[in-house]
Each structure stands twice: as structure tokens, then as C-alpha cells.
Amino acid sequence: METIKLDLEHYRKLLKEYLLTKNETALYQAEQFSKLSMQHNISPEEIVNVHIKALKELYPDLPEEVDDSLNFLLEAMISYGLAYQEFQTLREKQSELKSEISVAAKMQETLLSTVKPTIKGLEIGAISVAANQMSGDYYHFVTDRDDTLGIAIADVIGKGIPAALAMSMIKYSMDSFPESQRNPSAILENLNRVVERNVDPSMFVTMFYGLYNPNTEMFSYASAGHEPGFYYHADNQRFEEIEAKGLVLGATDNAVYQQYEKKINKNDRIVLLTDGVTECRVGDRFIERDEILEVIQAYIHLPAQQAVEQVYKHFERLQEFQFRDDFTLIIIQKMV
Prior knowledge:
By secondary structure, the chain is an alpha+beta fold. The protein has helices spanning 2-21, 24-39, 44-58, 64-111, 160-176, 184-198, 275-278, 289-299, 304-318; strands at 122-129, 137-143, 149-157, 204-213, 218-224, 229-233, 238-242, 260-263, 269-273, 281-282, 285-286, 327-334. Helix 1 runs antiparallel to helix 2, helix 4 (64-111) packs parallel to helix 5 (160-176) and helix 5 (160-176) crosses helix 6 (184-198). The model is unreliable at 1-6 (pLDDT under 50).
């Protein structure tokens, strides 16, 4: 307020000059006065008050209606000033929140990073893109000394930082299991207990876990309420749904998961995904599963990594580059 008192005489001179001459220089200097006032956190009502005082010094005999209108303006600016301060506070908090989410997203990327392994006789393609800064999808590869490949793909029912923390816990739990407990049914039963005990009851996790043994050419798998994947038969170019039933992780502490097995033939593919793929939309319409398979079929002949990237780009264009949910797709091809 002391700054205003010091500038009042200057403002009065500027106002008088402009009223008498309509000089553009006076307008420019008034702009500088406003910027200086903003730098000193001067509120709008204080500037209006300065204007009223300067005007009354120049014209002591203002009509009553003009005087009343100036008082009306001052009251309006008081309300505006309070609302503006609240708005600025919210903007600062939003900026802080965005910064925290950005840091959390980078931490998630580090904590949930996984290396696509090189397995003799297999070609692996994987892509996972978050709809927002934080992803609720997750995939992870685990390899054993005999080149057995474990594949996990999961989706947290719930987003943001809590989902990322839940996924981190699941990843490190999986990595801690001994090789003797890597069967899909055992993995899901162990993870179910971890989620049920440590994750908020309102948050559930769907997961598909598969284990490929290159020596037996068998793919064993189990599902905890996850989106069904597909098995692609190269000989007749036909997709078969990978059926597996099971409760989502965290629903109950004693869930039992049935394990299934399938022999993988040369050039056949395993397609795993999250509901961000199957629930793609065109306008207000969900894309049918047959349409999704047609898109995958169009690129299935490509190397696995190129195939998943082209499928993603196709749906990205189809949805005008605005995914409503996280998108994760894995294709595994048996080469020999």
C-alpha cells in the first residue's frame, strides 16, 4: 500500500494528461504503472481506489451518479480481487501437482521398466502407451536359466500414483519368487495374497501370466480376470481366443487359479493385450472384437515389434490420437 501512496501523484498526472490530450504516451505509462503494481502484489481494488482518488482530486464536484458508480466499481473489484487470488492459489497448487505427477511418472517408468529378452526360437514385440501421465497398465518379462520365459500383463482398476505403487509392488514380488514357484497358477495365488493384504480394498488388479518352455514347446498360463488374449494359427490364418477364468487379484485372500496348457507350433503367435485395446472407440461406438482382429491380422505378417507398433498407430489414427485408456499389446511368435 505504501507503493500506491508514492505513485498516487504520478498516476493523477498521467490521468489528467490523458483526459486533456488523449496522449498515447500517457496510456503506455499507465500500462507500466499496472505492471509495477502487479509485481508488488497490488490488488485490482487498490488500483481502482487510486483511480477514484486521483479523479476526485482532478474533479472535486463529480456528479453523484458518477461517484456512486465509482463506489459500485470498487465493490465489484473487491470481489474480483478475492476471486483472482483464489484462482492464482489454485493455479499454483495445480502447477505443483503437475510437477509431482511428472516426477511420479518418471519414477514409475524406472521402477516398472522391463527388458524384452532374447529367447532362442522366439520373436517378441511389446508396446505400452499411457493415456495420461501415469499408466495403470503393466507388462513384465521374467527369464530363467533354462530360457523359460515368464510373461505378465496386468491392468489396475484405478489410476494415478496409487496404481503405479501397486504395480511396483507386484513387479518386485514377482521378481522375488524362486524359480520353483514360477508356475502361472502359483504366481497368481501368491500375488493375490500380496494385493489383498497390501492394496486398498477399492483397488483390484487383473493379470494374465504365461510361461513358455522352449524345451517342451508348451505355453502354460492362468488369468486373474484379465482381458482374454488370442492364439494365432499361422497355417489357416485363424485367431482362437485364449480362454482362462479367475478372480481379479485382491478380491479374496484364498482365490485359486486354474492353469491351462497349449503347445505352440512354428510360426504361430500369442497375442496378449489390455482392455485399452479392446475398448477402443470410434465416436461413441466401441470397436467390435472382430474388427480388432482384422487390424491385428493386417500386420501379423510383420516382425513382432513392428506389428505391435503398426497396430498401435492404426488405433491411434482411428481415435484421432486421443486414447481413453492405456494401450498395451504383446505379440510373441514362435520362429522354429
